[in-house]
């Protein structure tokens, strides 16, 4: 096992105007499960492929443990990759699929069988070892792809959207299985997904990318509690955080009636940069509801999810009508057209620079 270090790793595709991955600095601890997440085209796969050796690195370097692997061919990196399409060999049995890499490496038959059986036990695949992939369910195929990676006992697992071919329910159960399997095996894992829920539920830490640039790398908890900028604030959490521009006044920052805590120093820095507003963030689940006072939200649409409901409404904030989403108790959802009185919960507000997007509040 080993750590992984991206040291200003950069990939500029031939003919590209700007790098697909720009000076990525990221250290992944030995045994850690790190999720790379971001919208389509942000550079997740390129980062993973650079680590795998499938993509040239045009600047900076990549280390696995203390080995510089920047220019090593994939086969010398001691990694195993699980792809989105599992790419199982259709004419081979499950056992042969799982053992194929070892066979190519010249490992003897008895050892291959032992390792394949061990992996099959971990993955509940024992009864299927003699079947062909076409006689398996989607979830079982996915586990064979995992098994193929496990038998190699690599230093690092790389996974590129390995759950995207599964239906919603299977995706949820398989993500739990992969996360607990990774913890049991303790193999350093870099996992790519565009799905922030997957990122937040699986990763020890999550790295958010946008336009080839790393935005924040942190534990899921910190990412949710203290997003570093507007992009991360809007990307992590569902439904997304309400982000509302409000004026900077002598009294500080107000969201409706509520004073939003932010340091004087941060506010004067924003004002010095020429900003007249800041952007306040409140998650839908961080409003207190009352009979009166606070912000008066006109209810336009109510989404009922059983335990919770989400109110999509409008309210006047800082003199302008704004759209707001508010989570409510699923058994007490308000009527469409009614008015909901909400106050952002103390300690659950975020303030960002409107111009740079950087976080200003503590
Ligand atoms: P993601 O995995 O986050 O969806 P990618 O790493 O695949 O993003 O792509 C990052 C950027 O690099 C995108 O703008 C994409 O169009 C570009 N790109 C990806 N692969 C190639 C390639 N082989 N040649 C040129 N540009 C590419």
What are the salient characteristics of this protein?
362 residues, alpha+beta, Rossmann fold, OB fold (Dihydrolipoamide Acetyltransferase, E2P), six-stranded mixed sheet, five-stranded antiparallel sheet, 9 helices, 20 strands, Mo/tungstate-bd_C_term_dom, ABC_transpr_MalK-like, ATP-binding, Sn-glycerol-3-phosphate ABC transporter ATP-binding protein UgpC, ATP binding
| Integer count of domains | 2
How are the strands ordered across the major sheet? Answer: 6-7-8-3-9-10
CATH topology of the largest domain: Rossmann fold
Q: Can you tell me the CATH class of the largest domain? A: Alpha Beta
Summarize the SSE layout with pairings.
Blueprint lengths: L3 E8 L9 E8 L4 E5 L6 H9 L6 E6 L2 E2 L10 E4 L11 H11 L4 H14 L15 H13 L5 E5 L7 H18 L2 E6 L2 H7 L2 E6 L2 E6 L1 H6 L4 H6 L6 E6 L6 E2 L2 E2 L4 H9 L4 E6 L4 E4 L4 E10 L3 E10 L2 E10 L9 E6 L4 E5 L9
Parallel strand pairs: 3-8, 3-9, 6-7, 7-8
Antiparallel strand pairs: 1-2, 1-4, 4-5, 9-10, 11-14, 12-13, 14-20, 15-19, 16-17, 16-19, 17-18
Helix pairs in contact: 2-3, 2-4
This protein binds adenosine-5'-diphosphate (ADP).
